[in-house]
Structure formats: structure tokens, C-alpha cells
Design brief:
heterodimer; A: alpha+beta; 7 strands; B: alpha+beta; Aminopeptidase; 3 domains; binds zinc ion
Chain lengths: ~220, ~500
Amino acid sequence: MPRHIKIGLIVFGIGGAIAMGFFVDIVGRVRSMVNERETEENPFKPPAQPLYSPTDPPMAVKVFFPAESGDSLLVAEDQTIFQSAEIANRARQILQKIQEGPKLDTMLAPLPKDAKVQDLFISEQGTAFIDFSDAMATAHPGGVLNELTTIYSIVDSLTYNLPEIKQVKILIGGVEKETLAGHCLLLLPLEMDLSITNVMPRDEKIAQLPRSASAVARSIN
Amino acid sequence: MKLIRIAISLAALGAALFFFGGLIRAADTNIPIYFPNSKLVVKAEVLNRVTYLPIKQVIEFMGIPYTDALALETLTIRSGNSRLLMTKNSALVSYNDQILLLPSPILREDGRWLAPIEFLTIGLTRLTGTEFRYRAGAPRIYAENVDAPELEMNAQTLGPITRLTLRCSVPLNVELKRDDQRAILAIDRSVDPFRERLDHRDRMVRSVVFDDSDGNAKIVVDTTRDVTDMRLTAADNNRVYFLDLFTKREPVTEAVPPPALPAAPAARPDVIPAERKVRVVVIDPGHGGMDTGAKSAAIAEKDFTLALARKLRSALQTRLGTTVLLTRDSDVALDNEARSAVANNNQANLFISVHAGYSTNKTDAGSSVFVMKENFGEGFTTASATGRDQLFLPWYLGYRIHQQASVSAANFLQEALSKAIPGSKFAVRTAPLAVLSSATMPSLLLEMGNLNNPMNAQTLTDASFQSRLAATIADAVQRFSESPQAAAN
Ligand SMILES: [Zn+2]
């Protein structure tokens, strides 16, 4: 092969390699831009982690839903979740059940349809902080009783089934709100109140637990 | 060529001097300097945003010897073996054999030595050991260990009244002095206001300004002609003061019908039976403005509550001769704290919040009388109250004082409603209600019906039903008023 062709081939080869390098680089850049855009759209979306593993044993829970009518404001429905290692994941499963609504039609859906749990965190003192999306407040139809049952279906379902959770603090849209729909205070964490449910406290041996308001009323009259 | 350059530079310099010279404009302010057992008020000058103090006046007051050398244009201050030497128009101060740099030069005008306020801490503290404290922009200085507790001011429009709240971490003596269009709150000690003035104006208040330019702390409230009365009350062992401004000029109100039967003695306020304990009732029509509350095709909750509240006001005034105030008498939004504050500030004997209900079950038609959830918030008092928070009773525990009377009033209401509106269920319930939590009198919330039930919504819209409802509530208030439970307040 003549020398000038050899040199030409070498130069061509080097040029090709450089061009190839540029091309790979450009493709890489374009790809990473596309990826970046994807992540930009959902910057806070946590990686989808399963709330339980297939080996977790089942766990029976009582999920409290607003009663359609009757004496109790909230009625418990027996449901099953998985006993995930993390308490927060059990809480998330219970909240999922609340969001899905009751199976029986003698109870009502406690949350507005579009309300989503955005975040959940359990503090060392046993306070579950739950951050709901704005729809929790904006799509709530209102009413004191209606607001009360929305809030206590969450508070009672979590505290009754997960003794590690002592109280529940509801946040909306990432911030503290005075009330959900103008009535019930959300500024302080809320504790379990079974007096408005058809369920007895777990460890109480008392045969009959009087309803709170009427109990006070009786003691006065 | 060189000459032209010099000429241009000089012209530029001249222009700059002319320009900046325009900015240097003196403004006088009186600044008190608080010493442990005395105080000095100096006339400070603010030049180009730098606060200048007449330094000779300060050192004379402190009893520090000095030499004012007119010919040398220097001022020398001595303390023990140390000395500070300052020169006119120089930001450099010599301290023994050190050089200290001030942020702005020392000035000498009409025989007065003016030093930037920083001279106190940079120069004088070093020389004398006396510490000075001041907040940037605040027209007062504290020397040595003068104790100046922080004073918080706050103003709120609460329906018919305007309330100014003062809070301090130590007890204060506050005296109210009135002159024509002003209320002056004189405070008996030096305090450190959080803010110099409040950004609050309403129909009774033009401005609220903290003023200690004469060395005496006071708050000057500039009021309008609408103010007919004012009252100062102390709370929390004189750590909290409320100045309430009242007006006789009622906001737009529905005409109150005169007592139906002038002959009936019970209808006249001046002949209220001695045993009647409910003299002031505050009615709170739920929601308002942007906050419509629950909605139905027939009516929005906010409109129902206002209509019912107005009818209830008439019923209570004519029947019981009570003073009745509404938290809102128009379509305005109001937060829950302001609602209960109207009741608290007017020493109401009963607070009734009215609402309409909503259930996703269209056939539901129940109503409820709510009282505050018992023991609500008690678990948080000791745990979360620390430091200065402990000085105040947590707002969310206000309801506790009259919890039993509240339940009793709720029972009277439930009984009256169940009788008057047969076929409807009325239950007494408890809930952690924001509007009731800080009300310091018997208080309850009535939630009527279900706006999602078309029949129910129609009934609630009906004016004659509303009148019947108002009359029934007034009955219950009368029964409560005559009961021993009402005596608690
Ligand atoms: Zn309401």
C-alpha cells in the first residue's frame, strides 16, 4: 500500500473515531436531557417501594368508616393488611383501605375522592404526621359531623390498630391547617376517640362505655 | 491636554459632590439612652441613613473627662490611663496606640461633636467598659445591664370592637390617658418594643405607634371619631393588657323590631328579672365570604347561618332583652379565633355558633348540638409550654372553665328543638371545634340538617321555618338563663 494512502487511512480512522466519540457524547447528552425532563416532572415522587413483602404475615385490622345512619358515627369494618416490618408501611396500608372506602354500603366513603396521602412520618413520641394533598380540604363538602367523621376515621383506624401510634397530626398540602373544612381543629395532634364508634377500647374490661357527651349530661341533670 | 483631563476630573468630582451632597440631609430624632438608674435623651441626627449621636453630651452625662481642642479639631476622652482621640471628618479613632475604624467619619458641626452610633460599642465600650445595646434602626439605646423586656403589640378588628393587645414577659403598670382623638397607654418602665408601629387601620384605629422619644415608654393610638368608649383590662398578672375600643355606631344591621308587647315587663331590658344570668349573647353565623361552607342547590351554608343568626338576634332581644352581638353581620370571611374573641371581649354569657350540616347520605336529616370535646388539648399543656409560653393560658383550653355549663345549655337546646321540630333527630355531641376552643363562656355550636338532602335544604331555606327555629333557640336560651347552671359565669 502506498504510504500516502496509509497515512490517509490512519487520518480517516482517527477522524472517524473522533466523530464517533462526538456522536456518542451527543446521544448521551440528549438521553440525559430526556431523563432530566422526566425527573423534573415528578421531582418529589418517591421511588415506588412496596408497602409489604410477600413474606409478611397477614394482619387483621378494623378500619373505621362513617356510618350511613345509626347511633355510632363510625363503624368498624374488618379488613386485612400485611404485617410489614415498618410501622409506617402498615399505617400506609390502613390509609389505603380508608381511601378505597367501605365494602358494605351501610357505610360512607370518609375521604374526598381525589384526596391522596402525600407523606407519612411517625415521630419517636408516637405521633403520626400525615400529609394529605390539597384536595383533602378543597374537595371536602363540609359539615361539622361530616368533617369529624373524616378526621376520626383516620385517627381511630391508625391508633386502634397500631398501638405504636399514640396520636395523629393531619397536614394538608405540606402545611399545618387550622381546620379541614372550617370546624375541627387540626392544630393539635388528635388522640383515639372510640366513644363515637361501635368498638370498645381494646383493654377495657368495662361492660359498657357511656358516650362522652351524654355521660357528662347525665352527671349534670 | 493634561489640563483638560484635570479639568474634567474636577468637574466630575464637583458633580459627584453636588449630587451626594443633596442626599445628605439632616433629620432629627430623639433617642433615649437607658442607664441602670437614669436615662438621657439625646437629639440624634440621621445623615445619609447613618445615625449620629452628640457624643459630648453622652460622655458628660457619664461623667467622663475630655478635652475639646478647638484649634486641633480633636476631641480626647480619658478614662484612667486610657484615652480615645478623635479628629473631625475622620473615621479613624486612636485608642491608646491602636487605630479603630468607624463605619462613618466623625463630624463637628456648630461646636457639636457627632459620632456614628457605632462609636458607642467600638470606642466608648473599649474605653469605659460600659456596654451598649441597640437594635438597627430602633431609636433607643440600652446601657450596661438595663433590663428591657420585649413588648409585643397586636391589633385586631373583632366585629364591633377593636382590640389592642400588649404582652410582656414581666408585669407592667399601664395607665390609659385619653385626649381628643388619641388613647395613650403609659408604661411605667423601659421596654423593648418588637415593632415601632403596627400596620393596622380600621374604622376605629388610624395608627398605633410606640413612642419613648422623651424617655417614657408609651403607646399612642390615633383613633377615629367612631370611637365612643374604650376600656383597658389587665390579664395574666399584668403581663397582658387589652385595650378595647367600642363604637355606638352599629355596622349595617338588620332593623331590630321593637319589643312586640311594650306592656310585657320581661321584654324590657331595664326590668330583667334578678335571676336572669344571660345578659350578653354572641351569635356566630358560620362561614362567610369566600368560605361558603356546605352547599346545596337551594342555599349555601353561609347564607343560611346569617339569616338564622339575624332572626335569632331579634328573637332574643325582644323576648329576653339581652344584648345580642353577631360575629359577622354581612357576607365576610372571619377566622375562628376572631369569632370567639368577639364573645370573649364582650364578656358574653353565652356563645352560639350556627351551621348547616352535610352528609354524603342524601336521605340523612339529623341535626347536632355540639360542645367542645372534653379534655381536648390537656395533654399538650405541660409538654409543649416552655419559657415565655408558660406565661399564658393556652388558647385552646379556654373552653374548659365553662364545660359543664356548655353541656347544660346544649341539653336545653336539644330538648327544645326535639319538642318544636318533631320527627327530626337532635343529638348532643362533642368535637374538637376550633370556634369553641378558646371561648371562655358557656358555648355551643348548632348544626342544622343536611344540605345534601334536597327536602332538608328546602326547609332550611324557608323563612318561616327559620323564624320558628330562632324562636325555639330563644326559648332554650331563656330556660338556660333561668337555670342554676348559668350562674357559673
Ligand atoms: Zn359549617
